[in-house]
Design goal:
With 353 residues, the chain is mainly α. The protein has one domain (3-352). It is built from 15 helices and no strands. Helix 1 (3-51) runs antiparallel to helix 2 and helix 8 (176-197) crosses helix 13 (301-313). The termini are far apart.
């Protein structure tokens, strides 16, 4: 057998191996999402249609809450009880994509600073339906595979902002006006802000994509590489995640203060709630009962609309989780964009809702 034939057979073998890895990742992701997201959300959509509710506010009774260690632990228990399955899935997928998905494929579709890469990543986020913290490990994994800033951001932000299940719940529980407002600003954040974030990266286009797409030979067994990836992810992501959730749980009464009737729909309230919503951490769709509760106690539609946009988009824990994966200028731009769009949405909501 000639050396050419041997090389050809080796290449075919590697291609089949790569294909099996991709299929394995897709099957694991689909099975995990079916168990953690798709089936539970199908049942919850039926519940929301019949009861016009998806549960009580995760913030609890703020009038009785005080900043304390007990308050921090109580919120953390409720929060992690709701998200732990999705958090585990996010870490699993974030580590697996680094060892299962070929770098050439990811770079071909998601490696450029063009709007096309951003759009593909944003659309790929739709079936994920994760909160910003659970999607963060996957965004970290994408950046480790040299996916462009815009594409990684679009996937990270798109998961919570254009979540189809949340939009369905919102329509049944709040109104179609809330849903439309959320969709418009969600699309702006997912595709517009993510695409513009590429401009804050020094090496936006000088990177030679073709050269980067040359697959590096994997060192070590698959299990060893995955354990290394998962271990690194756990050590980096989990501590910051837990500590920041405790911090926000303790201070939630300060972030969401009770407002008198005159201030309940003021511009200052919209700004306050936009900033608080950007910082605070919630499970997927938890903004709906939070907004429902605030509206019932007299908070105006303006601050409620601000929360509609900023609560799910990002949070302090998710920002800490991705802090080493994105340039600081990019994260500052994202934070400012979320707050500004939250304020704009609050002003629009004040007059439209």
């Amino acid at each position: 057998m000639s050396q050419l034939d041997t090389t050809s057979q080796h290449q075919q073998s590697e291609q089949r191996k790569t294909l099996w890895f991709v299929v394995a990742f897709i099957l694991i992701a689909a099975a995990g999402l079916l168990y953690v997201k798709w089936w539970p959300y199908y049942n919850k959509s039926i519940l929301s249609a019949h009861t016009h509710s998806i549960g009580s506010s995760i913030l609890g009774n703020l009038s009785d809450a005080t900043p304390s260690w007990k308050s921090a632990v109580d919120y953390a228990i409720v929060y992690f009880s709701s998200v732990w399955k999705a958090a585990v899935l996010g870490i699993l997928l974030g580590s697996l994509l680094q060892v299962l998905l070929p770098a050439q494929w990811l770079l071909k579709f998601l490696g450029k600073s063009s709007f096309g890469s951003t759009a593909i990543a944003g659309m790929a986020a739709v079936p994920g339906m994760m909160c910003s913290c659970c999607a963060a490990p996957i965004a970290v994994g994408l950046r480790k595979k040299n996916v462009s800033v815009g594409a990684a951001l679009a996937f990270w932000i798109g998961n919570p902002m254009i979540n189809p299940a949340t939009l369905i719940f919102m329509t049944f529980v709040l109104s179609w006006k809330f849903t439309l407002l959320r969709l418009v600003f969600g699309l702006i954040l997912t595709f517009g802000v993510s695409y513009l974030a590429n401009r804050f990266v020094k090496d936006v286009e000088p990177v030679d994509i073709e050269q980067m797409m040359v697959e590096e030979k994997a060192e070590g067994s698959f299990l060893a590489r995955w354990l290394k990836s998962a271990g690194s992810m756990l050590l980096y992501v989990v501590p910051a995640y837990i500590l920041s959730v405790l911090l926000l749980g303790a201070g939630r009464v300060w972030l969401f203060p009770q407002l008198n009737e005159g201030a309940a729909d003021s511009l200052m309230a919209i700004i306050l709630f936009a900033v608080a919503g950007m910082l605070f951490v919630i499970p997927t769709a938890a903004e709906i009962p939070i907004i429902q509760t605030f509206l019932s106690v007299g908070i105006g539609s303006g601050p409620a609309a601000a929360l509609l946009i900023t609560l799910p988009a990002v949070s302090l824990p998710s920002l800490l989780m991705v802090a080493k994966s994105f340039p600081k200028k990019v994260l500052v731009f994202v934070i400012m964009s979320v707050v500004i769009l939250g304020i704009a949405g609050g002003i629009a909501g004040k007059w439209l809702l």
